Amino acid sequence: MAELQTSPMEPVMKPVMEPVMEPVNVPIVAIGASAGGIIALQKLFQALPANLPFALVVLQHLPPGHPSGLATLIAKWTPVPTRAATNGARPEPNCVYIPSPDDILTLENSVFRTRPAQGGGRRPGIDTIDAFLESLALHEGRRPIAVILSGTGMDGTAGALCIRKAGGIVIVQDPLTCLHDGMPLAVIQRGIHDHVLPVGAIARQLMTCSDPRYTRPARSAGYAGVMSGTLNRIIAMIRQQAGFDLSGYKPSPLFWRIQQRMETRKVWSFDDYACLVEDDPVELEALVRGIPIHVTEFFRDAEAWSALHESVLTPLVGTNAEKRPIRVWTPACSTGEEAYSAAMLLDEIVQEDNAQRDFQIFATDAAPELVATASRGLFREDALAAIPAARRAHYFYKAGGALRVKRFLREKLVFVPHDLISDPPFSALDLVTCRNLLIYLEPETVKDVLSILHGALRMGGFLFLGKSEPYQLDGQGFETVSRQWNIYRKVGPMPGPERKITSQRPGSSRATQARSALRVARERFDIPSVLIDDECSVLRIYGNTENILSPRAGEPTLKLTDLVPQQWAGHLHLSVREALAEREPLTLTNLRDRVTGEDSMSVRLTPLQTSTSNVWDRLLVTFIREPHARERSDADDADDPHAMRSSPDGAVNVDWKDQACISREELEASREELQALNEELKASNEQLNESNEELNEANIRLQQNIAQLAMQSRVLQSGAVMTLFLDQDLKLRWFTPAMREVFSLKTGDVGRSIADLVPRFEDRAFLKDIDDVLQAAEPREAAVRNNENKHYLRKIYPYVSEAGAIAGVAITFADITARTRAEVALRRNQAWLSAQKDAFQAAMNGASLDRSLGILIRTLVSQADDDRRCAFYIADGNVLHHVVGMTASYARCVDGFRISPESLACGLAVAIGEPVITPDVLNEPRWQSWTWLAQQFGYRGCWSFPVETSEGNLVGSLAMYFEKPRAPSAVDLELAAAFTQTAGIIIWRYLQSV
Asked: Residue 828 and residue 823: Cα distance in Å, rounded?
């Protein structure tokens, strides 16, 4: 089948001859997190003990090319050493390992291996989290543990399945505690988990699970067998439907693809999806077509092709004394890029050496649709980016906006459907190229496939596996030609008995025969339908379509638009594109039936999502003929004056008078007249046909323009775009619904002057900027704020007509509230840090305590947007003394407050070691005897925060006073925590120096 690949670049792996290390005995815990995972990771690490009996690997989705600060954060949350998971590093207990965002991490031969994730590309089935979990499941060390935290999508589900099948443990964060519950729910809904816990409880459970005496909960112990049985059911149905066997493939990639279909169909139980596939042939068809992942490219890994050119192809062309054709086989050819690459390289070598040599390349794949696509040799221009211009011009020509391989090269290749695992192989081959396929097969199947490829090669033939296939074949009937690129030469038989693949094809039981007969019956007698791709190519026919589809004269084609009646073609082609774009079924009615000649046909277009990349690229086209009773009457010739009638005795009576009126000359004249009239009718008909074709083309273009305008209108009306248009007289001509956020607009306001409309934002330069844009034709922009404290970026652009004159202005608003608040918070944080730095510096330079703490007081007041007053107090034994902040008269009133549970807020905070928040002192019973103090100095709200050192010694307090009742916000609490920590250090230093 087509290559089940993982990313646009093959894994960077070390030579296969490196020494094999002993398995790691330390348990390994892999933690997968995505969106919202930082908060969960912080809680998890803060709950873990300081000494861990296992190694922790943290896997988080981050874009490549951007530095990660995760290691720095984790180092703040836990004393456990944090290390980078580099290539070749060996995991150790009581360490946290973090891979680079630019790498995909795996565990191989007891050490970490990394390969680049160029461009952030991920191929289905092997993702950042899944790749490591799958490799960890293959590890022979202690029982692996997987933890799935907050995140969107299904990342980690396929890897968790591998961990469970390997006897490992899967722990999932409770979805109710997740910021994003997609990843945990994907595991829970498939029953792969052992524990569902809050983050804090996960830390305790990890310590329990790392104990060798841990026993899995009984409720999930039998999961692996159930999942394997269900997966085998689906594989059997695929084998029966598509004819290729997936039983030798690793379950993780297959399971990943099945998950995508489950997400699409909203089926959350694996067993339920198996039942759906059994009952719904269309879903089975969609699954079958979504399994092959044909990610390939021309001359992938240029260095590998250089090695193949120098060490294999050139010797093959020059040293074959028999001058027989060179035979090459590319199994799992996908869409043909690798096979065409080999053909181009061979042709160039033959031309350079002037060798009278021929060659033939067999390109096979288990998916007939891919084989058909590859045989056409038609590629988009961007797919040929790796091919130099000279080579492209020599081997390709442009056709319909794409590039096609020239016929002389296509004739060198033979494309046929072929299942490498179950079908008989080719023989007497000089070269087999099989890259990025074996890594997806089970170990026993790999041995079988290598035996088949060995048997297909002639003695001295070459096997090209690529750098991602680390199989040591020296001494296995091969010798190494290139260790880096895994190129081998056949030098003898493989040791041991000959291995043969035993395909588990369906037997000839009555049940199997009944299912096959049912499928044939559906295809023959169901409602006439065809399955097509996004290029209108017919992939499968259901029911009887012989009176609907018919080939035309000329080169055979499978294009549906060439098989239906000609008058359908334009409308059908446009509707196919619309159905795929909108992802909604469409029905075409009143189409001319070529059998009855009546407008009684309907065509139903049902789009299908059949690939793993969320692309809608299939359509089920159903033909519905409406029954009509067409009454027909025999010609009544009773009124024909020239009719011959029979007498009762059978004799024919002839009207001789009428017969004499028709002479031979009149007949000849009539015949010539009719012939001329017929020629005129033919010419008129041709003109009408040409006009009809022009009208059809114009109609198609019109429909496309209408569809494009409708799409643009839907986007603008969706609520995400805030735009209005004014003409030269500054009158409103058009606006999007989202503009009601900044103007009180309604439909009747169209035609009113912009000066008459009341804005919901503050912008004094608004009308002036509009005039400036109309006069100078240069855009203007400004940041504005509305009455609800939301911020917008307002832009005004000139609208230029086709004649080049300014016809009005377009005004747009973009919500920048989050950005503005972030900028304000950044400036505030910078001011906080600057104040803390200045206070520390003053203290270090010997400044007095009131001067050092006064810097903090001034920042507390200046950075607030209210009327607060602040003061610091220092503890002297069991009493408090005012240091700085309030007036001298207030200080005299409060100096000497006792630090006790009965004290006021500033003393109580020190006594209990916790903040004392009093939103309104007049409503607080504790303040009843001190309300005179609050009234005298004009405050109602009072907050007090204890000041303590890093060793936990309480040395004073920070108090904030407000004229009106008020409770603190999160920013207030954060500010107080930062400044009391700084004050604690300064006061402690002062006490040590006294």
From this structure: 8
**Alpha helices, DSSP H, located in 481-597:** 510-525, 560-563, 566-582
What are the Cα distances from residue 706, in Å, to 131, 305, 570, 702, 712?
Answer: 46, 49, 15, 6, 10
* Res 715 pLDDT > 80: no
Q: Which residues contact 956 (CB under 8 A, 6 or more apart)?
A: 872, 873, 874, 875, 880, 883, 910, 946, 947, 983, 984, 987
**CATH architecture for the domain at 821-993:** 2-Layer Sandwich (3.30)
> Domain 524-625 is in which class?
alpha beta
Strands (E) in 167-220, as ranges, are 169-173, 195-197
Q: How far is CA 733 from the centre of its chain?
A: 40
Name the residue ranges covered by the structural domains of the chain.
28-221, 225-241+252-291, 302-490, 524-625, 656-704, 722-815, 821-993
φ, ψ for residue 688 (rounded to 5)?
-65, -40
In this structure, the strands spanning 326-330 and 429-433 are parallel
> Is the pLDDT score of 23 beyond 60?
no
Q: Is 76 helix (H, G, I), strand (E, B) or coil?
A: helix
Cβ contacts of 382 within 8 Å, gap of 6 or more: none
Give the span between the Cα atoms of 662 and 673, in whole angstroms: 16
Do the beta carbons of residue 774 and residue 809 sit within 8 Å? yes
pTM for the whole thing?
Answer: 0.40
The residue written with tokens 């290729």 in the block is 244
Residue 718: predicted pLDDT: 58
pLDDT in tens, 526-549: 578 888 888 888 887 877 788 888
Tell me the C-alpha distance between 360 and 413, whole Å.
6
Q: At which residue do the structure tokens 């055979």 appear? A: 556
Catalytic positions are 34, 61, 155
The C-alpha atoms of residue 453 and residue 430 are separated, in whole angstroms, by 11
For 284-309, write each residue's pLDDT tens digit. 777 776 665 555 788 888 888 888 88
515 vs 395, residue with greater confidence: 395
Contact indicator for 171, 148 with CB cutoff of 8 Å: yes
- Say which residue the tokens 């003061």 belong to: 871
Which DSSP category does 743 fall into? B
3-class SS shares of the chain: helix, strand, coil, % to 5: 40, 20, 35
Superfamily holding 28-221: Methylesterase CheB, C-terminal domain (3.40.50.180)
* Alpha-carbon span 151 to 263, nearest angstrom: 16
3-state secondary structure of 960: strand
The architecture (CATH level 2) of 722-815 comes to 2-Layer Sandwich (3.30)
Cβ-in-10-Å burial (0-12, 13-18, 19+) of 96 comes to buried
- DSSP secondary structure letter of residue 310: I
Helices (H) and strands (E) in the chain, counts: 29, 38
State how far the Cα of 555 lies from the Cα of 113, in Å rounded to an integer. 53
Tell me the C-alpha distance between 392 and 368, whole Å: 27
pLDDT band at 56 (very low <50, low <70, confident <90, very high): very high
Judge if 302-490 and 821-993 fold alike in CATH terms.
no
Q: How far is CA 938 from CA 344, 376, 664, 964, in A?
A: 90, 88, 130, 9
**Whole-number Cα distances in Å, 680 to 677, 684, 686, 689, 812:** 5, 6, 10, 14, 61
Q: How far apart (Å, rounded) are the C-alpha atoms in residues 442 and 418?
A: 20
Is 431's pLDDT higher than 90? Answer: yes
pLDDT of residue 679: 53
Level-2 CATH architecture, domain 302-490: 3-Layer(aba) Sandwich (3.40)
Q: Token digits for 386?
A: 């790796």
DSSP 321-363: TT-PPEEEEESS-TTSHHHHHHHHHHHHHHHHTT----EEEEE
Give the helix/strand (H/E) hosting 709.
Answer: helix 664-717
For residue 2, the model assigns a pLDDT of: 39
